[in-house]
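Lab notebook, bench 4. The sequencing result for the construct came back, and we need a structural model before the next group meeting so we can plan mutations. Quick request posted to the team channel:

Model the 3D structure of this chain.
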Amino acid sequence: MSNVSFEAPRGMRDFYPEDMAWRNRVFDAWRAAAERFGFQPYDACVVESLALLQRKSGEEVSEQIYAFQDKSGRALALRPEMTPTLARMVAARQSRLHFPIKWGAIAQCFRYERMTRGRKREHYQLNLDIVGTESVLAEAELLGAAVQAVRLMGLPDDAWRIHVSSRALLGELLAKAGIPAAQHPPVFMALDKRGKIPDEEIAVLLAQAGLPQDAIDAAFRLLAVDSLEAAAALAGEDSPAIADLRALHALAERMGYAPLLRFDIAVIRGLSYYTGIVFEAFDAQRRFRAIFGGGRYDSLLALVGGKPTPAVGLGFGDVVIGEILRDALGEACPVPRRGYAVGYMTAAERDAAVALAARLRAEGHPVDLALLPQKPKHFFSQAGASHARHAVYLGPDDIAKGVAQAKDLDTREAVPLALA
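Done. Here's the predicted structure in token form:
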């Protein structure tokens, strides 16, 4: 046993109570936002068929899968993302579902990847998906829910931005630059690495995909387009992709989060199944990887064997937002005080303390009941460090009177509390 490490496996996490305070802050905001926007909760097994995940072979995520064989020789994997699982579940009941559907899940995902600040090998993420409509209102609803979640977490709007682009728009512009549609997927994958590897290495990847030098130069020039107006001038005002991006911005105006949106043609998303509008949110200083990201994936249901069905989805991880919240709000997570701490002086007061705790809990209050007799100083010190709002300490005089004092740990005021 002397050789056993007390550390979690590399890239994995333990959650001590102080860590759970941050996690609960994020999860509570996710659940509240999803509920407000009408997303139905669902869940799925964390182990998936490797074949399902390898439908997107050749992508970076395929190289990061935790894969294994079970005792029957089946090729399985820990899910690296939730979208293929969602597609599988929808395809399994496609004829019985009433579309469009809005589903949401908090999923644990695993990827064997290089770790940096804000990047682990396991993480939780909120997945929101709308399946069964081509309307841009679906993208607007997804982003509205994500904005609601970030605001509920307490991060101010000036601390972050949502960068929006369109795979369809970039496809139109690549075609106008003379790059055929068959070469668009490897171009998307290569350009998505910009900022992660040097441009020289991206140029090599584009050349390996079969692009001549003039086409490589044209692809890089497109990434210099810095506004939707400039993109529209290249694509033409009759571009369906431009129309969708403008419709999204108009809807965001009505929903109250348009100031957060930024057109950014460099947002591509590395997964090949994206087909239309794509987006990624970043902190204002771009110190971290994306807070959340997603987009439209109208072909994925057919890819896993279902009927072609339009869909749009979003993944919002807990690691990056946790780092940003700590920087913005302080290392200790602010947790509102609730309920009672109940203590007692000697064993003679224990039964009364137990009865009081039971009554308060029956009334719906959280109660932290001391397990042993304590001196007053020790009890109030522990209660002050807890999340309790009120502290009640029972001594012989309180029992004799049938009344204790409930001390407010914020205001220090005490009010009488009957023991019977």
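The chain has two domains: 17-329, 340-418.
Will bring this to the meeting.
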